[in-house]
Amino acid sequence: MSPIALRRHYASAAAAVAPEATEQPFFPDEPAGPILKTEIPGPQSVKAIEKLGKVFDTRSLNMMANYQRSYGNYIADLDGNVLLDVYAQIASIPVGYNNPTLLLAATSPEMASAIINRPALGNFPQHDWADILESGILKVAPKGLNQVFTGQSGSDANELAYKAAFMWKRQHQRGGAHIDFTDHEISSSMTNQSPGAPELSILSFTSAFHGRLFGSLSTTRSKAIHKLDIPAFDWPQAPFPVCKYPLDQYAAENAAEEQRCLDETERLIKEWHNPPAAVVVEPIQSEGGDNHASPNFFKGLRALTKKHDILFIVDEVQTGVGATGKFWAHEHWGLETPPDMVTFSKKAQTAGYYFGNSELRPNKPYRQFNTWMGDPARAILFRAIIQEIERLNLVENTAVTGQYLYEGLERLAQRYPSEVKNLRGKGQGTFIAWDSPRRDEVLKKAKSVGVNVGGSGATAVRLRPMLIFQKHHADLLLEGLEKIFKS
Ligand SMILES: Cc1ncc(COP(=O)(O)O)c(C=O)c1O
């Protein structure tokens, strides 16, 4: 057997073992716990970082990893250290490092063809593109949305959605898809002037993060360092509720705060000089500090967008694909009508936006277009991820493990109230965070107790474990955190 065939053989054997209960390990041959051999970075890592630093900016480097040695929930470095990873490549690894099911998909002839014959999907889609979409990306489409436009990254997905929103809005204003552009529109578009380049906007919220490309960056409001020196659109920013946690204990105050924000959102929709074509919102503001709001707030936004005939875009780039204990976080809200568009990336390993209304397809070809328009290889990978999520019932696992982890953190918060403040994410799977007065020190110390964990906003410790994170991993995490809090 060739080495690849051998690996596929092992992979298919491992993939065939489906544990019956969530308590059984999904990866029985995962390390039993973190392995610490040296300080991090150890000598081999230091050498490798120095080498890399000569040709690539390493100033944002967190740790140098060896992905061939990483497995399941554990990330390995170059010095023999193996850490429990609850950061997971900025919340983007769904079902574990070197997952056997994914390895099987990755080494299939279908995948090889998709990689080496990458199609320009808008012009030359491959014969089975519809099947790949239907058995993958669209199989998990949010309720009410049955079409997709695929893209490359979270920022790209959002920008594509914004463009769809603007084209939809102008088409409405013009009176329908059949009405052609005027000569003035055509000529003014070429000089970046209205009406061809219309004075419209996308409304986003304080501390939102929607990406770093030009359009998406204008809707990002989390940190100045992302935005400095970059020209931006003159688009409105509504206040995102600053809620008190736990949400249910402060229900009345939070409801008042949410109403204040809804009122201000409506005022901006009505009065902003560049009227919004859409409102974009994250179900849980992630990069901006893990800020939550209640389903009522989001229902209120849906109602406002309907009332003012603009679109409601839900950015599920970070919340999507199971982490909150639902496949899509907005399922927690119980909306009567679905969002107009839902954007996705990260754990999907592909990207794009879902929509249901065919009017969101522009009236002419080539208006929403680029060379690749997505990537069948990444779509095949997402299909395998979905199969793995279904096989191991991972959305349910995340809900159950998340509750267990949250309860453990509540106990830690009682014991170490100065270390765990504003614990949040109850009932939201493993999408949990808290504020720490010494956040950066906690993140750094976590490595010395065998845990890789990230932060969000200025003070939050954010947990973003993979969907295969189980109760025994939660126990290890809680033990590690207690060691840090005691130190
Ligand atoms: C909610 C949200 N939207 C968009 C993005 C941008 O995604 P990308 O970095 O893939 O462009 C991110 C990235 O963290 C995100 O969290």
From TrEMBL:
Q: Which UniProt keywords apply?
A: Aminotransferase, Pyridoxal phosphate, Transferase
- Required co-factors: pyridoxal 5'-phosphate
> What processes in GO biological process is this protein linked to?
gamma-aminobutyric acid catabolic process
* Name by which UniProt lists this protein: 4-aminobutyrate aminotransferase
Q: What is its EC number?
A: 2.6.1.19
The organism named in the record is Clohesyomyces aquaticus
PROSITE patterns per UniProt? AA_TRANSFER_CLASS_3
- CDD domains according to UniProt: OAT_like
Q: Which SUPFAM superfamilies has this protein been placed in?
A: PLP-dependent transferases
Concerning its family, UniProt says:
Belongs to the class-III pyridoxal-phosphate-dependent aminotransferase family.
Q: Name one GO molecular function term.
A: pyridoxal phosphate binding
A single GO cellular-component term from the record reads: mitochondrion
